[in-house]
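Sample 3 of the quickstart, ligand iron/sulfur cluster:
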Amino acid sequence: MSERLVEVHDLFKWFPVQKSFVETLLARKLDYVRAVDGIDFEVRRGEVFGLAGESGSGKTTTGRLILRLIEPTRGEIFFDGTNILTMNDDEMRGLRQRMQLIFQDPYASLNPRMKIGAAIGHGLEIHDIAKGQGERDLVIQMMERVGLTPAATLYEKYPHQLSGGQRQRVVIARALILHPDLIVADEPIAMADVSVRALILHLMMELKEEFDLTYLFITHDLATAKYICDRIAIMYLGKIVESGPLREVYSHPQHPYTEALLSAVPVPNPRARREHIIPKGEIPSPINPPSGCRFHPRCPYAMEICSKDEPRFAGTEDGHLVACHLRR
Ligand code: SF4
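Result:
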């Protein structure tokens, strides 16, 4: 059994820009949003791998590509040693049981007309695992495990009758009931009340141990990532700019963008003073990203070479990688 559960090689996803008929006729070539623009990384079995960055960095698209909810423009995605992009629909259906998604917005991801019990058990029917009383028993068991109690009562409720925290537990139960190996958790606590965020994270970590899970944890919040991730990759405009063991990246950030993101993370000591580094200007358009290093228009350390040559993504033997000319 390979240590690597997921491997991503040279992965691209470009979305064509929708234009009016006249604009299409006048345009010489199509424009593309380069949501994911050539990334490589691996997720090791049993770890929590964080994918972090601002909105529009490409992290959610990456999560969807790994689950093959959308097709890449090019690249390779291996799950447990098999290139999933070569699999047909039947093979993918079998594999989907092993890789599940926890959505950012649980309310939007639940069918408002489907009762909670049916929503959690739906996957058991689709994958021919259980139905009828057998399905109900498994659902009740899972609801109790994730703290949806009294389970028999909540089983009959609709999503709008639950609190935000309960709905988040429903989507966790729905993902776990198939006993997957990998969970892609896309901003799983972003929509939850502040009061229940820590509880949800704690539950996710307990379930990880109990069900032997691997998480790809997608977040814009480096403070949350700090408490849950083993390794992390920082994305900026469709590229990974830095990755490595979380402690190493947080204690010795090598990329100016990582440095800026980390400077905004609150520290527990109210007397500790830290400079908050704010990158210049706005995040550029992913349709026409800057030449060379994409961060150069905003980088306080930009040099002449930065706008001309794209820095290589390279690093140390301990797996701390960075794409920055300052580190050559
Ligand atoms: Fe800044 Fe240049 Fe490094 Fe890019 S390559 S982050 S512009 S110093």
